[in-house]
Amino acid sequence: MKKLHTPEVKIVTIEDPIEYHLPGVTQTQVDQEGGYTFSEGLRSALRQDPDIIMVGEIRDNDTASTAIHAALTGHMVLSTLHTNDAAGAIPRLTDMGINPKVLGSALNAVLAQRLIRRLCDACKKQEPATDEERRYIETVVATLPERYKKEAAGVDFTSLFHVVGCDVCSSIGYKGRIGVYEAIIMDATIENSVKGGPSARELREVANAQGLLTLVQDGILKVIKGVTTLSELKRVVGE
């Protein structure tokens, strides 16, 4: 939001609760008892002629429909959904009653993220990888989109960084967290797929063909760079 805000851009948010106060941004907080819901807040925001609207979470059909309408009428709308991955956002919205044909025109991008613990740089230790770890990494690296394969080129998978623990990290072995991401950017191929009302699996296959970097693949790149551990990636993202 800080990057999007300029004196010429009017931003209105509907949050539950307001977690960070942003100078220059009109922030409002949901009040369920007072009748100020996400959907009501969104309708109120539209009357203020904003350039950008941030809706803390889309939880129901009313909020989803109003958000899609806002996006189709020239507003940038940012929001969140609870899904397993980026592709899962599409069937989640259609389950809320959004017409897939309208959804394909309204969406620009869908981003999924997970937070994983970052290895402590003061004590992490490089050790030989097990045969199972090496085979798993090689399998994932082999599926990387072409533009990301250069990041793994020449990396020795026979050793990985592991947790140790020291005074800097309170003997935990990790210090801080970092995100792993996957983003589906709408293009003509993906938009046409969305308009057909695909399942998450079907949309994922289309996105993979378009060069999607998945959560696991992004995580593996961080593992081989010594940012986190393979066990931490599997704990958070799965296999």
UniProtKB/TrEMBL annotation:
InterPro entries in UniProt: P-loop_NTPase, T2SS/T4SS_dom
PROSITE patterns noted in UniProt: T2SP_E
Limits of the Bacterial type II secretion system protein E domain: 46-60
Alphabetized UniProt keyword annotations: ATP-binding, Nucleotide-binding
GO cellular component, one term: plasma membrane
A Pfam family: T2SSE
Matching Gene3D superfamilies: P-loop containing nucleotide triphosphate hydrolases
Recorded superkingdom: Bacteria
Example of a GO MF term: ATP binding
PANTHER family assigned: SLL1921 PROTEIN, TYPE II SECRETION SYSTEM PROTEIN GSPE-RELATED
Family under the similarity heading: Belongs to the GSP E family.
Protein's name according to its UniProt entry: Bacterial type II secretion system protein E domain-containing protein
Organism: Candidatus Lloydbacteria bacterium RIFCSPLOWO2_12_FULL_51_9
